[in-house]
Amino acid sequence: MRFVEIKSEDQQAVLAIHRARDLVVRQRTQVVNMIRSILREFGYILPTGIEAVSKFAREHGSVDQLDLPEIADGILGVMCHQLNGLNARVDGLKRLIEQHAWLDTGARRLMRMPGIGPITASAVVAIIGDAKQFETGRDLAAWLGLTPLNKSSGGKERLGRITKKGDRYIRKFLIVEVTSRALMARNKPEKADIWTAKLLDQQPFRLATVAMANKFARIIWAIPTKREEYRQPIV
Fold it and tell me: What is the pLDDT of residues 21-36, one digit of tens each?
């Protein structure tokens, strides 16, 4: 049985920033969906992406008004004001996390990995702490829910989907970041490393990204455990 390692007060403090940011981001998504739904009811459709809605919220009331009923336009103004405040809070919390990442030695070491940014590195340091509590890199990958379910029976090896039973906060960041790298490798094969290019060629896209996230988790375990810097694979 693996027991949970007790977090230090500094870890708890940084983790509080991450939890607050995650809450504000989810609230922002709800407000964005509300603004889109109000506009859609009256035939106005904004471009995809949060930046389009944020731009509309910043400009609401300062440019030509839409042809909306007064009550609907007033509610829309309230939602736009709330979105502007949430964007400011997200930016402020992001700066706090980045500041912690650059001041922490372990987080700086993790950020030398391609695809690992300040938010992910800070989250790993705050949540995982001492990676030595895991005996192997696979144990950490399993703790993050990135290993497949074992359904072997009668001497036949059968692996199912990933368990998704670990910390979904770190797992979410890893999946997003490796997906970005996989898209870059698919669109610009000349910049991709051999392992990634071969994996994308042999496996479905989503299966390949999960395998990349599993590998990232093992590297994240190895760097602080062995007190080494990240080294690019030798071609």
Answer: 999 999 999 999 999 9
